[in-house]
Amino acid sequence: MANTPHLLIDLLDRDLEADLEDRPNILKDRVEALPPETKTIVIDEVQKIPDLLDLVHLLIEKKQGWKFILTGSSARKLKRGGANLLAGRAFLCALDPFVSMELGDDFDLNHAMRFGMPPYVWNERFPESCESFLRTYTYTYLKEEIAQEQIVRRIDPFRKFLEVAAQSSGKIVNHSLIARDCGVSDKTVAEYYSILEDTLVGFVIEPFRHSFRKRLRSKPKFYLFDVGVTRALSRMLSVPPVRETLYYGELFEQHVIIECHKLVKLHSPDTRMSFLQTEGGREIDLVLERPGMPLAFVEIKSAEQIHDRHIDALKALRHEFPEAELFCLCQEQHPRLTDERIHILPWQEGLKVIFKGRPANGSSAI
Known about the structure:
Number of domains: 3
Strand order of the largest sheet: 5-4-6-7-8-9-11-10
Order of helices and strands: EHHEHEHHHHHHHHEHEHHEEEHEEEH
CATH topology of the largest domain: Arc Repressor Mutant, subunit A
Radius of gyration: 23 Å
Number of strands: 11
CATH architecture of the largest domain: Orthogonal Bundle
CATH class of the largest domain: Mainly Alpha
Distance between the termini: 33 Å
Helix content: 40-55%
Largest sheet: 8 strands, mixed
């Protein structure tokens, strides 16, 4: 956009926000006064003044060639206030942290496991600065998004909930246990999780069932959107992840699932992500229902060498789902295919196979 004339309306400017809140028609006047070569209007933090969306709708209908880019960190205020969401007149995009594929040779798994994937931590490699950024981000989220928008009545229980939710990230949600830890009701905990989803801080993965009705009756897992933010909220930034520990394995699993979630949104938005728990207590980390393609069952292991015990759960699925593709994404260096046709793949190569829709052959890199 650097070479394109544009108008920026930054609602973080308190004076501008107050002016437009009192007199929203100023936006219409400013746009109509633009020179002919300026056709792009950017409104940042648009959720602060939902009434502006009606004016944007009106200006779009004038068909003067204007293009609007509306950004914000939360759709909650717009949804709850009945704002004009421009259905059929706008494309909806979410700006996530980096995906490892975008970074190419600059990607460093150890750095990603410690500080996550926000752009700042890849531009600033000093550990102290990365830690400071993540702590500041979480504080700003509490202060700006939650307190100033008055999303919750009391900030202290929500602050405690955030820490507990971070510690529980990637695990099955138990509202009762979390409510007990936070000193609030089960209903309040459910509302808190809804806030995290609406403010794009986390996402839910439902359990896989053959019946969609059964799927909705079971407890989901919840993931925060980035492992660096998870570590900041759970007060673990000063503890570097160490290989071959339970903590490292849990973080690695979260990292790969978050990568999958971003890739689904980018390349395969009709794909459904879930996880599988069998009656015998076995668990499959990820199930991908890809339209027009076989089911993909994915186990995620941080190990550098996969043994039979790592893929027992996948083996048990072959009889029930003979047409499914079975993957183990791990830190082995080379792809291989077992006798049970389980594809053991370096995790990044596995993601490319799964999301480019190519048949896995277990023998050659993409």
